[in-house]
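> forwarded from #structure-qc
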């Protein structure tokens, strides 16, 4: 106890000296004032108020710290202790000593605070016995700095054990973040899978790609042959593309790579010829580029593998600094003692390649699937369980030197239109919309009022909402397929938990069930689509094409700069074509004014308006106030307002200004073309729906006037009802065959115009309408207003360019455009008739043919003069004739006419032995061998494709698909096959036989005639007869073009005979069986006269078709 008594005696002296020392030193010291952690833990009262606030709200240091440098003022950061420390008991003596120390410390602090009242309430200012310890690095400035701390709000004190209080912590201002360098791109996730038949695991691998978050999936042993791409239509996830290298041998092999379209992948410029392994190369568009190679080496030993692989490495490593090589090498690298493995590992070591797979990748415990890199880092390599095949999938990450080239799609502003939208819109429009009297006199104001009112009402009913683009799911996925997928996930979790072999078998069985379930759901979906659209060939083509071929994504960056680039390209294209034209000084055409005039349009009624809108396709422009589909639903509500705009435009001769702006969307011509070349895109123009309504009404009235007065060109088959490419070719073939039958040669010239619809002049078109058609008054003023002040802009994913004026051409996508272009070409016929040249036009495709007789000494001077005047007229009318694409072919009386006595002069360089005329390949011998070969080749290709979707469809639906894809090819222009040799038609018959066997599953050695009879399919040569007779019936009943009807003449005997009322036709006499007998004017009447009387007397087209097919069917299968 003596030490305790000594401490009690010295406590008063020690206290006095300690306080005196501190009070004298603190005022004069100019040093660093700090508090360590122990001081903050020992003191139990409130934190010091080291910062005072004046009346003006500014912060000042406490007077005690006024003489201390600003940068020397610090405080310590304390932390609350979460656990209460257990008090240590040291016995009776130790407990008394601890209590005495605590009492002394309390007295010391209270006396110190009382002596410093003149400085204000200052707490925890005295250092503890550890105050002389070194200053810790966790001390922070608290006062006198440039950014002083804000005063804390009122908070009740919360004392803690051992003097800890959270109020001793002051909030510190957070430093501003400055990003100097962009964040590195995330690593790309790769997968390597040996599929062993890709076609049987398409939906499984698609789910695997999505669930694992892959960016690249490299597949080996796809077992796909050349031309087989239907599997990728099922496998390809949304916004993904693929490379495919089909197998070269009959067994095994095949490589493919699935990758997200956000990465720019291109085939490299390397040309490698290999025989010991399969290789697929593609290059990632980074800087520097990364070369990726997918390898499959067959398991059979090949002595050339190491040499070829080393040569490949030597070639690619010289050009690329970053290389990734993955694949199934079928080399046991896990057994380095094997000779093949030892040589292979030595080879990759010599090229500084790193092999990252160290675990077995095959069920038998071998490492066969490898990942080799050069200049790239691989991380997170995982080997999954072998579920798809006997190989295990390998997953890994690679940090690429570039980020995905395509940014995420921005949010779009859309309207959510549901079935109740039309009723809500109609109710709101009727309540709030009344046509103001001030706008009734102006068409532009009335149209603008209608646009703004509809937009306001639509904003109130269905306002625009921001929506992120969502990936469209396949329409055949339903609750059944989702339940099958959940079973797969359940089996997968079970296998991961117990790792039993029976669980693995259950997992494999569940995935197989999932694949079969999705295939069945897809089959049902396709069957329903085909059933609903069996009379819509376009829908059938798009549906089956999507099922057979994976879509090729073409990405165009939707930026303002890209839109402006396309805008300048489209404008410059037309300007450059017109710059090549030098208008001459005279017009070689013969202009004959129309004696009949058309002064004004007739106003329409509501019923006519409703009927017009009903038959229009719901296609419009992005600038439409109301979507076209909704517009057609609410036309009864909008009818009076729309009728006011239409009749106001027709009566005033003013086309509404807000209907003159077109939105152009660039569309690539073919998916395999390079999207970086602007000439590979064609402009798709979209006009407002109100503009199409007004144009359709004008078109009907103008067409009736033209038909009534016969102003249209007879030999123009484009954009006309009852006209087609087959009717045009049938007339051309008829004239050429009859001329060659007479012993003459015929020269056929096919002219090609460059951008004809885009370069025509508006003033010339107005003069055509005025002089040749007879349009006057307000009608002519309406057409002038229709062509003036037109503009267009480019739209790429809702990114709009600036507007550019449309100074030339007819508006693309318009209703009146094709008709106006036909009227623009009216003087062309006068030039050709002046030189006695026969011709035929289909839109802007013009063909001229002239018979060259012996009495003219085989001179083609009339044709040369005609072509010269045509060039002058076209230049005068701003039409550019592309002489490089102009083709010439010569037909002779018999045999091959490549050697003919005709001097073609300047046309010699354009002579061809085969030309393509409106989709039909014509040859000099009129054998049509090239055409038949082309049809056979394309038909068999379609049959191979359709065989892949046969399992999806029922027999009835599959027959509909065969007719849409194969029979239409056999029937296209098959009326031209009349009189062709039987050997040529037998090749087409092989296509029909193969289609019948595919549909019915008939064995190839079984006789095909009973099969065709059971299907009610007419053989090919009977289908040719059917088409010829169909044209004859149409020509006799006013359902065919006039140029075909004038070739047929009813037989009228010179005396009264019983054949006078038999509806027989005159059959002209011919000389040559392979020439004149094949002409429509000869073959048609001959086949017609052979029909039974009941067939010739059919009263309607459908009745005639039915009776004709029954008659031909009995002839074809009479012996069956």
């Amino acid at each position: 106890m003596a030490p305790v008594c000594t401490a009690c005696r010295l406590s008063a002296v020690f206290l006095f000296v300690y306080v005196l020392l501190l009070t004298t030193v603190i005022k004069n010291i100019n040093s660093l004032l700090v508090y360590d952690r122990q001081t903050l833990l020992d003191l139990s009262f409130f934190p010091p108020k080291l910062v005072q606030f004046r009346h003006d709200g500014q912060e000042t240091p406490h007077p005690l710290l006024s003489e201390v440098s600003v940068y020397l003022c610090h405080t310590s950061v304390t932390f609350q202790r979460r656990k209460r420390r257990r008090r240590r008991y040291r016995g009776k003596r130790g407990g008394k000593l601890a209590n005495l120390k605590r009492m002394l410390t309390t007295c010391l602090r209270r006396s110190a605070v009382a002596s410093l009242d003149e400085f204000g309430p200052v707490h925890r200012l005295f250092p503890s016995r550890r105050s002389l310890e070194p200053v810790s690095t966790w001390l922070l400035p608290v006062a006198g700095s440039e950014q002083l701390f804000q005063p804390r709000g009122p908070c009740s004190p919360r004392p803690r054990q051992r003097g800890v209080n959270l109020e001793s912590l002051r909030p510190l201002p957070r430093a501003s973040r400055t990003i100097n360098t962009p964040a590195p791109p995330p690593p790309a996730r790769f997968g390597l899978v040996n599929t062993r038949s890709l076609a049987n695991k398409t939906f499984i691998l698609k789910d695997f790609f999505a669930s694992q978050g892959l960016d690249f999936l490299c597949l080996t042993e796809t077992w796909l042959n050349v031309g087989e791409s239907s599997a990728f239509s099922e496998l390809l996830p949304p916004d993904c593309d693929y490379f495919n290298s089909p197998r070269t041998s009959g067994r095994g092999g095949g490589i493919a790579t699935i990758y997200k379209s956000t990465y720019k992948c291109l085939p490299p410029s390397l040309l490698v010829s290999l025989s010991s392994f399969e290789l697929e190369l593609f290059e990632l568009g980074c800087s520097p580029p990364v070369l990726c190679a997918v390898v499959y080496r067959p398991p059979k030993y090949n002595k050339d593998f190491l040499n070829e692989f080393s040569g490949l490495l030597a070639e690619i490593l010289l050009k690329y600094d970053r290389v990734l090589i993955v694949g199934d090498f079928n080399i046991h690298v896990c057994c380095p003692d094997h000779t093949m493995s030892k040589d292979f590992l030595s080879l990759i070591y010599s090229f500084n390649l790193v092999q990252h797979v160290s675990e077995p990748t095959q069920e038998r415990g071998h490492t066969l699937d490898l990942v080799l890199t050069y200049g790239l880092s691989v991380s997170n390599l995982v080997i999954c369980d072998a579920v798809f095949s006997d190989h295990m999938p390998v997953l890994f990450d690679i940090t690429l030197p570039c980020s995905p080239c395509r940014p995420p799609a921005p949010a779009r502003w859309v309207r959510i239109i549901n079935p109740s939208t039309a009723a809500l819109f109609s109710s709101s429009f009727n309540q709030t919309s009344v046509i103001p009297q001030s706008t009734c006199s102006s068409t532009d104001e009335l149209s603008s009022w209608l646009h703004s009112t509809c937009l306001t009402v639509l904003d109130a009913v269905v306002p625009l909402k921001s929506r992120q683009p969502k990936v469209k799911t396949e329409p055949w996925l339903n609750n059944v397929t989702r339940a099958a997928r959940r079973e797969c996930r359940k089996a997968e979790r079970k296998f991961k938990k117990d790792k039993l072999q029976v669980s693995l078998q259950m997992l494999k069985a569940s995935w197989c069930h999932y694949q079969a379930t999705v295939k069945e759901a897809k089959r049902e979906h396709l069957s329903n689509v085909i059933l609903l659209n069996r009379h819509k060939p376009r829908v059938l083509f798009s549906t089956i094409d999507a099922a057979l071929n994976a879509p090729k994504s073409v990405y165009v960056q939707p930026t303002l700069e890209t839109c402006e680039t396309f805008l300048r390209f489209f404008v410059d294209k037309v300007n450059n074509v017109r710059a090549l034209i030098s208008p001459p000084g005279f017009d070689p055409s013969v202009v004959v004014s129309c004696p009949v005039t058309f002064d004004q349009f007739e106003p329409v009624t509501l019923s006519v308006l409703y009927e017009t809108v009903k038959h229009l396709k719901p296609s419009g422009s992005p600038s439409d106030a109301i979507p076209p589909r909704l517009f057609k639903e609410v036309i009864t509500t909008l009818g009076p307002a729309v009728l006011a705009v239409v009749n106001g435009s027709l009566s005033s001769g003013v086309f509404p200004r807000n209907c003159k702006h077109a939105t152009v969307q660039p569309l690539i011509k073919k998916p395999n073309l390079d999207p970086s070349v602007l000439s590979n895109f064609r402009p798709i123009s979209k006009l407002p729906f109100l503009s199409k309504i007004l144009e359709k009404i004008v078109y009907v009235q103008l067409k009736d006037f033209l038909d009534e007065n016969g102003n249209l060109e007879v030999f123009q088959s484009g954009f006309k009802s009852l006209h087609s490419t087959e009717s045009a070719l049938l007339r051309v073939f008829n004239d050429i065959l009859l001329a060659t039958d007479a012993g003459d040669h015929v020269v056929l010239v096919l002219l090609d115009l460059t951008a004809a619809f885009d370069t025509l002049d508006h003033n010339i078109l107005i003069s055509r309408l005025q002089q040749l058609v007879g349009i006057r008054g307000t009608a002519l003023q309406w057409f002038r207003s229709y062509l003036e002040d037109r503009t267009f802009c480019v739209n790429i994913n809702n990114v709009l360019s600036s507007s550019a004026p449309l100074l030339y051409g007819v508006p693309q996508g318009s209703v009146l455009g094709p008709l106006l272009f036909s009227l623009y070409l009216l003087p062309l016929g006068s030039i050709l008739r002046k030189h006695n040249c026969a011709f035929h036009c289909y839109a802007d495709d013009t063909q001229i043919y002239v018979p060259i007789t012996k009495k003219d000494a085989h001179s083609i001077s009339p044709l040369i003069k005609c072509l010269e005047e045509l060039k002058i007229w076209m230049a005068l009318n701003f039409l550019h004739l592309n002489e490089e694409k102009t083709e010439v072919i010569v037909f002779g009386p018999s045999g091959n006419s490549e050697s003919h006595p005709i001097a073609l002069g300047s046309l010699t360089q354009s002579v061809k032995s085969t030309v393509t005329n409106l989709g039909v390949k014509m040859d000099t011998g009129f054998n049509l061998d090239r055409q038949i070969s082309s049809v056979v080749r394309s038909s068999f290709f379609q049959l191979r494709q359709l065989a892949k979707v046969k399992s999806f469809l029922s027999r009835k639906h599959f027959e509909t698909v065969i007719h849409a894809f194969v029979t239409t090819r056999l029937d296209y222009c098959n009326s031209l096959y009349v009189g062709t040799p039987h050997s040529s038609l037998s090749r087409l018959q092989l296509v029909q036989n193969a289609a019948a066997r595919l549909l019915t599953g008939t064995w190839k050695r079984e006789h095909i005639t009973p099969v065709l009879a059971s299907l009610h399919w007419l053989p090919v040569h009977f289908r040719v007869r059917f088409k010829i007779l169909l044209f004859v019936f149409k020509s006799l009943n006013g359902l065919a073009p006039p140029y075909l009807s004038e070739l047929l003449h009813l037989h009228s005997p010179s005396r009264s005979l019983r054949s006078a009322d038999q509806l027989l036709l005159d059959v002209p006499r011919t000389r040559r069986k392979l020439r004149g007998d094949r002409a429509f004017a000869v073959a048609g009447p001959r086949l017609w006269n052979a029909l039974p009387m009941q067939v010739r007397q059919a009263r309607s087209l459908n009745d005639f078709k039915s009776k004709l097919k029954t008659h031909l069917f009995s002839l074809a299968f009479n012996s069956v």
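QC bot note: The longest strand covers residues 661-668. The mean pLDDT is 83.
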